[in-house]
């Protein structure tokens, strides 16, 4: 089973933004040591407690401090940007770090309405134009515009020896079909979806159109998981993230709380129900319990790879969670 990591670069209450970004780099180093396949950085804007507004900058930092793990965006929110500029950025990264770069593409706004307007005053129009934006980006990456296209003579430099691998990220049938139509790898965000992912992934595989003969369907599933030496400890780690999510939903702008703060946070009945609903979508347990659930999900969704997102108060607890999962999967 291939395992990977999605990191949102969260800030804990006892951290500065600089420390949070440095912790993300150290997590990537640990992921490489543990044998994870890839490390992606999310893109979020104006969201309290997250420092992942510029993943392309973080990827340069992470790439320079790692040696072989694949790194990429999870995801570039393409409606905000021109495909040509995205191609230039990721071609530059692929030139610096050959054979290691993924460019994940998404369509979400990634933040508040005000942040969306500040980034792009035509966001909704660009969302409708997403299929064209994706196609244009792929042509820039692969340098295969039709000869009569207005950009046929335009190159996104530098041109790397190994092209960045494009992925489409999504949680719907619409995103799956767009990935399939363009012969792209597909990442389904189970941890943030209310949809039936197995059916969506099947639609992707059924409709996949290879861009070239060597291309075949490739799918990863992104899940939220927490692992510790004991099941009780794993639930404590997850509680910090759960309470943080509830607090942010109420407009309480602060970092990820400690386990002790999370335990003391007052919840009304509605919030308790919400917490249990969120927890039901997570994988929480000791090493063997987490492995069992990951294997079950891989079989259910028929995926090639599982990408894990874990948010804890302590960076050491997060690294330990990923270490335990990797060790369990490798030893058995």
From TrEMBL:
InterPro entries linked to this entry: Bact_Lucif_Oxidored (IPR050766), CmoO-like (IPR019949), Luciferase-like_dom (IPR011251), Luciferase-like_sf (IPR036661)
One CC-aspect GO term: cytosol
Pfam family, one: Bac_luciferase
Taxonomic superkingdom: Bacteria
GO molecular function annotation: oxidoreductase activity, acting on paired donors, with incorporation or reduction of molecular oxygen
Span of domain Luciferase-like: 1-296
Family from the record: To bacterial alkanal monooxygenase alpha and beta chains.
Protein name: LLM class flavin-dependent oxidoreductase
Source species taxonomy: Bacteria, Bacillati, Bacillota, Bacilli, Bacillales
């Amino acid at each position: 089973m291939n395992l990977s990591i999605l990191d949102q670069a969260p800030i804990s209450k006892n951290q500065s933004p600089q420390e949070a970004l440095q912790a993300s780099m150290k997590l990537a180093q640990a992921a490489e040591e543990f044998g994870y396949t890839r490390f992606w950085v999310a893109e979020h804007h104006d969201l309290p407690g997250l420092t992942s507004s510029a993943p392309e900058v973080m990827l340069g930092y992470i790439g320079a401090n790692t040696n072989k793990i694949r790194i990429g965006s999870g995801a570039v929110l393409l409606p905000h940007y021109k495909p040509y500029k995205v191609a230039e950025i990721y071609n530059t990264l692929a030139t610096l770090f050959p054979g290691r770069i993924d460019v994940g593409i998404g369509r979400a706004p990634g933040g508040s309405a005000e942040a969306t307007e500040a980034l792009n005053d035509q966001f909704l129009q660009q969302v409708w134009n997403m299929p064209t934006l994706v196609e244009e980006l792929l042509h820039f990456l692969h340098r295969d515009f039709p000869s009569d296209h207005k950009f046929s003579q335009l190159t996104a430099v530098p041109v790397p020896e190994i092209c960045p691998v494009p992925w489409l990220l999504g949680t719907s049938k619409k995103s799956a079909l767009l990935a399939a139509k363009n012969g792209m790898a597909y990442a389904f965000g189970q941890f943030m979806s209310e949809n039936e992912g197995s059916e969506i992934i099947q639609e992707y595989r059924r409709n996949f159109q290879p861009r070239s003969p060597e291309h075949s369907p490739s799918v990863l599933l992104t899940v939220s998981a927490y692992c510790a030496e004991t099941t009780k400890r794993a639930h404590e780690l997850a509680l910090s993230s759960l309470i943080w999510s509830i607090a942010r939903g109420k407009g309480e702008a602060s970092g990820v709380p400690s386990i002790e703060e999370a335990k003391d946070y007052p919840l009304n009945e509605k919030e308790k129900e919400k917490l249990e609903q969120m927890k039901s979508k997570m994988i929480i347990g000791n090493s063997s319990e987490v492995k069992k659930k990951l294997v079950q999900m891989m079989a259910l969704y028929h995926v090639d790879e599982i990408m894990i997102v874990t948010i804890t108060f302590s960076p050491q607890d997060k690294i330990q969670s990923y270490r335990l999962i990797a060790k369990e999967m490798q030893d058995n």
